[in-house]
């Protein structure tokens, strides 16, 4: 019995140490900048937004801007209520299917879901919402991009889209599309967001596994 207790205590201590090490690495990685010299354009840019729901970050983009047209890529017919298709923006995030589809908020997180996601999965999705322009605030930050930067951002998002049919999402205005890439503890939904902005040439943390690690780069 004592051996079992010591074993469980050792496992708990090792787990706590790993979590602490991960938190420290995430804090450091999210503070080291890529594209450090980037500054937003003074005029003539395309406004996008970064949203944080406490678990996932997503990128909100105009459906038509700088030669990019999302209406054919993410048609209104893919959502439960196509009336939302008339709204002028799409919010896009990437993640592991089980974790993303099953955890719209922190209250929905389950230990088994976390374990499966951390272990790694090639089953990823893009969560696409048809939305109105958001209002900047604590959980929503506006970012102005040059047209060429917006096109690079859009190219990164397109490259994350897999093959197959979408499935309807949480509500009448959203859907999940098959994604590309493998999700694991190194490559989270928020790392995807950070990489999208890095690919566009925007100043962002080198490794952003948490939502806070993304949002710190876009002050209110």
Characterization of this structure:
By secondary structure, the chain is of the alpha+beta class. It has 6 helices and 11 strands. It has helices spanning 2-29, 97-102, 111-119, 147-159, 189-200, 211-215; strands spanning 33-34, 46-52, 57-62, 64-65, 68-69, 89-96, 124-131, 140-145, 167-168, 174-178, 204-205. The strands form 3 sheets. It has a 7-stranded antiparallel beta sheet. A two-stranded antiparallel sheet has the order 1-11. A hairpin with a 5-residue loop joins strand 9 and strand 10. Helix 4 runs antiparallel to helix 5 (189-200). The longest helix is centred in the N-terminal third of the chain and has 28 residues, at 2-29. It is globular. The relative contact order is 0.22.
Feature tags:
single chain, 220 residues, alpha+beta, seven-stranded antiparallel beta sheet, 11 strands, 33% helix, globular
């Amino acid at each position: 019995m004592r051996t079992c207790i010591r074993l469980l205590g050792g496992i708990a201590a090792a787990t706590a140490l790993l979590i602490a090490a991960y938190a420290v690495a995430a804090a450091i990685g999210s503070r080291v900048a890529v594209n450090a010299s980037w500054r937003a354009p003074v005029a003539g840019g395309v406004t996008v937004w970064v949203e944080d729901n406490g678990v996932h970050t997503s990128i909100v983009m105009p459906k038509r801007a700088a030669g990019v047209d999302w209406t054919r890529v993410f048609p209104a017919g893919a959502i439960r209520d196509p009336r939302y298709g008339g709204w002028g923006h799409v919010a896009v995030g990437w993640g592991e299917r089980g974790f993303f589809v099953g955890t719209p908020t922190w209250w929905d997180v389950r230990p088994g879901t976390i374990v499966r996601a951390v272990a790694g999965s090639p089953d990823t999705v893009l969560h696409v919402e048809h939305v109105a322009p958001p209002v900047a605030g604590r959980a929503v930050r506006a970012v102005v991009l040059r047209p060429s930067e917006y096109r690079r951002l859009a190219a990164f998002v397109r490259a994350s889209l897999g093959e197959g049919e979408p499935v309807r999402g949480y509500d009448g205005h959203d859907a999940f599309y098959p994604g590309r890439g493998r999700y694991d503890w190194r490559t989270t939904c928020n790392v995807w967001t950070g990489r999208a902005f890095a690919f566009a040439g925007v100043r962002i943390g080198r490794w952003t596994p948490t939502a806070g690690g993304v949002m710190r780069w876009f002050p209110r």
